[in-house]
Write a sequence for this structure.
């Protein structure tokens, strides 16, 4: 049975979530659930040692963040 929760977000976070949900053509609550589940699923594919190695690589982390931001802003192109 579905449960209702209250989530307190700062205004900038709320605006960003709302914009991302709109880009994904989802209601905000659905976007939060889908994004959280996706994050949890992705976390399960990397063990703690591998994640520690990734986090130590500052250049890689920087590039991943840039790539994520660019994808969110729909910049760049898909390379096949």
């Amino acid at each position: 049975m579905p449960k209702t929760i209250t989530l307190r977000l700062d205004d900038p976070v709320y605006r960003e979530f709302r914009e991302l949900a709109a880009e994904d053509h989802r209601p905000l609550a659905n976007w939060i659930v889908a994004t959280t589940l996706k994050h949890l699923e992705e976390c399960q594919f990397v063990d703690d040692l591998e994640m520690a190695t990734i986090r130590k690589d500052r250049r890689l982390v920087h590039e991943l963040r840039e790539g994520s931001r660019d994808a969110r802003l729909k910049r760049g192109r898909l390379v096949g």
Observations:
- The mean pLDDT is 91.
